[in-house]
Amino acid sequence: MIIVLKANTPKEEAKKLVDAIKAKGLQVDISKGARQTVMGLVGNTEVVDVEQIQSYECVDKVMRVEVPYKRASRAFHPQDSVIPVGNSGVTIGGKKLAVIAGPCSIETPDQIEGVAYDVAKAGANILRGGAFKPRTSPYSFQGLGNKGLDMLRDAGRKAKLPVITEIMSADKLPVFLEDGVDIIQIGARNMQNFDLLKAVGKTRKPVLLKRGLSATIEEWLMSAEYIMAEGNHNVILCERGIRTFETYTRNTLDLSAVLAVKRQSHLPIVVDPSHATGKRWMVADLAKAAVAAGADGLMIEVHNDPDRAWCDGAQSITPAMFADLMDSLRKLAPVVGREI
To answer: What are phi and psi of 47, to 5 degrees?
Structure first.
């Protein structure tokens, strides 16, 4: 249920209404826009007497929210959310595109530092790199673990970029927080690991939530709701392709999800064309298509020697290819009301 307040409602009147609602055991999320203030009610709203709420002088209208996700819903939060990335000055959402770039897996200090400098020079504003790798085969390279985290953190500091990496389990959360990870990534395979979602929800770190391999948009937003229900509203969604009957590409990139999310939710959404396609030659064109569709950012795999990469080299582009892509995006972004 949401309550829309009249314009210029005095704070004292709004507080009386909030206190009355909380007295019924409900939580109240307040979203203040340029023209109106919206109160989102979370809990058993059956106890709310709509006529009684409408009798308050400050109330413009009362509406029930039909979707099961509340805090992630645009009805609760009409304005687009803009997520700050620590104290870096980087944000995800809004006019400026976020460009996340780096290797699938961290291999050596020279490798991650070299890529970090290259993508920063080209215009990326966030460094990615996998320290813990969820792989289909137990015999595939699983990442360098804590050692990789240290390498990523050091490379980010040297290149002056905030860093993002994937967490595999809640027990690793203290290490992520101590090692200065700026954005915690929840991978596709963990999208419905509800204990992990609750754990990152208890932090206030930005969380990038990848769509599950076969997840519907509603299931994806419900997973975001798990994080937000614990108090962490700094959630970024990532479309990375879904599993279909098609075998030519690694997954099927669902750009319609960008439009659907924008209509249903206020959360920013980025697109990962690297994991979606699994093919290096497709990455740049689909990245541009994602920006044209309204994505708030991109996640691109970049490796200095992709043919010898320890992980996912076939979908990784070179620093030179990434620089060319950034040049193209600088021309495209203003056409769709964005900037790099």
So the answer is: -80, -5
Classify burial at 290, counting beta carbons within 10 Å of its beta carbon; exposed 0-12, middle 13-18, buried 19 or more.
buried
- Per-residue pLDDT band for 190 (boundaries 50, 70, 90) equals very high
Q: How crowded is residue 173: how many other Cβ atoms within 10 Å of its Cβ? A: 18
Tokens found for residue 19 = 């206190």
Print burial letters for 183-205: b (CB count within 10 Å at least 16), e (below 16): bbbbbbebbbbeebbebbbebeb
> Within a 10 A sphere around the Cβ of 4, how many other Cβ atoms?
16
Structure tokens at 257: 């999800």
Q: How far apart are CA 82 and CA 236, in angstroms?
A: 9
Distance CA(177)–CA(186), nearest Å, equals 15
Please say whether the beta carbons of 5 and 60 come within 8 A: yes
3-class secondary structure, 37? strand
Q: Which residues have C-beta within 8 Å of that of residue 17, sequence separation ≥ 6?
A: 3, 5, 39, 53, 56, 58, 59
Residue 23 has pLDDT above 70, yes or no: yes
Task: Give the distance from CA 323 to its chain's centroid.
Answer: 24
Percent of the chain having pLDDT more than 90?
A: 68
Range with lowest mean pLDDT among 133-142, 190-199, 239-248: 133-142
Instruction: Kindly report, residue by residue over 133-170, the tens digit of the pLDDT.
Output: 665 666 555 567 888 899 999 999 999 999 999 999 99
